[in-house]
Amino acid sequence: MEKDFYLQYASVEDKHWWFVARRRILQQVIRKLNLPTNAQILEAGCGTGGNLKMLSRYGQVSAMELDEIACQLANQRQVTQVKRGSLPLNIPFNSEDYDLIVILDVIEHLDDDLSALEALYYKLKPGGYLLVTVPAYMFLWSEHDEINHHKRRYRLKELKQVVRKAGYQVNYGSYFNTILFPLIAIARGLSKLLPKQNQNSNDLKLPSKLVNKILQRIFASERYLINRFILPFGVSVLLLARKPNS
After folding, report:
1. Strand order in the sheet with 98-104
2. How far apart are CA 16 and CA 206, in angstroms?
3. Residue 144 CB coordination number (10 Å)
């Protein structure tokens, strides 16, 4: 992503409805894992570090990020030392006993998602968890995906297939951001009818406080459904997998 995009990303990540609600959903999933005290947690591709504080509530956090500017911004949070690294060949940590690895909206950027997941497999201890999120459905492809240098969007079935092929056991998978899906799908569809220069591709624009609060509450309410039900569609996909004990 471009430098200006990362700067804007960092400026809204703590308050934009999408980021705040997604963290609440992820927190609900992680809380139910009953991780050990002082669990070892790795965030692969932490971006500007918006999830690090939340993750640190559940253990000792390590983090890596490819982009130098994003890495610098993440380190300004002073949660952990974020190191430069990339998947699959340049993971800057020697530990192979992580209890949880999170890779959130990352593998859609990679040419080889399978190799990335295989590399992380060997960093998990037996029985350790992998938590993945990705954007859903290629028909939702928009200029936002192009700005973010996405390679693909996923269906739940496709994500399960690549995770299993990498050696993991799938515990749970679901779409999410389901309640707002119709509005977002309509907006993405309409944007394709506009001349490209007139499209509003800035999904990071912070709405008014009232709208931001309403959207945040709607999206975050799905935390009561995640891990209990499989939501049939959504703007994103969430998958929880585990490395076999033997």
Report:
1. 82-84, 59-65, 39-44, 98-104, 124-135, 236-242, 169-176
2. 6
3. 18
